[in-house]
Amino acid sequence: MKKNSYRFTNRAERIIDLLKEYDNIIQPYHFLIGACEEATGVCGELFLYLYQQVGSNFMKQVEEACEAQPEEYIEWNELNITFASLKVLERANEKKENYGQTLINEGHILFAVLELEKNLRNVLSKEMLNHIFQIACTPRDLTVHLDGYLHKPLSPQNEIRRVTPSDLPALKNYIRVEFGERWLEHVNHASNKEEIPIFIAERNNTIIGFACYDLVRNQKSIFGPMGTSKDKRCQLVGRELLDTCLVEMANLRYPYAIIDEAGPVEFYEKACNAKLIPVGQ
């Protein structure tokens, strides 16, 4: 397998780099341990949960429950990994594709581990596995403090502007084609607003992304949904849209913004210093 056949977020890359420090042939459970050792964002929350629920030696317990006799392995990305571990990466990539995302993140990897590593059930209860899934493998809410939030100058190649009523038909069609029907209900809330709380990104008069606020459940202070065209991702489009909306929300004197059900958690952590809202709160 070629080293660059998969693309990862920075956090997922750090997990894989930690595995390079192991002497072992990498088995599926190593991805879980590597995530706990990475210990930032959802991985830090995962570490604390397992530490509290299983004990300070939870990594040793996971290893003893899951360690198997080394099978045949292949070399991948400077690692010797079993074919079961290769299956974890393949399944993680499938999850990424199912969500229409560009990069494999820690949630995709951990989902695959929970699904494929059956021996985890010897040390983790069904309730624990479900809670791990909620921590690491589902969209999460985050919060951004807006006091003193300032505009971040980014790429000049994207034209960002507020949506007008005449833009709504084209925007709805764009959303339907790029993302399906799921976000249209939020945009429909905008038609009776005096000032539409949606910004779009354009290139050559063509919509390439959008972002909303105050539309989810028709509640103020909630950011989202946001989406960018698949072929325009990793080109600062999302960052510019996010920043524009947060500046507007700060100007409205909102003390904070809630980012609703974010899939790419790490993107928001880096782009605007967003903080995870713990599961259950």
From TrEMBL:
<dbReference type="GO" id="GO:0016747">
    <property type="term" value="F:acyltransferase activity, transferring groups other than amino-acyl groups"/>
</dbReference>
<dbReference type="InterPro" id="IPR000182">
    <property type="entry name" value="GNAT_dom"/>
</dbReference>
<dbReference type="InterPro" id="IPR036628">
    <property type="entry name" value="Clp_N_dom_sf"/>
</dbReference>
<protein>
    <submittedName>
        <fullName>Acetyltransferase</fullName>
    </submittedName>
</protein>
<dbReference type="InterPro" id="IPR004176">
    <property type="entry name" value="Clp_R_N"/>
</dbReference>
<feature type="domain" description="N-acetyltransferase">
    <location>
        <begin position="158"/>
        <end position="281"/>
    </location>
</feature>
<dbReference type="InterPro" id="IPR016181">
    <property type="entry name" value="Acyl_CoA_acyltransferase"/>
</dbReference>
<dbReference type="Pfam" id="PF00583">
    <property type="entry name" value="Acetyltransf_1"/>
</dbReference>
<dbReference type="Pfam" id="PF02861">
    <property type="entry name" value="Clp_N"/>
</dbReference>
<keyword id="KW-0808">Transferase</keyword>
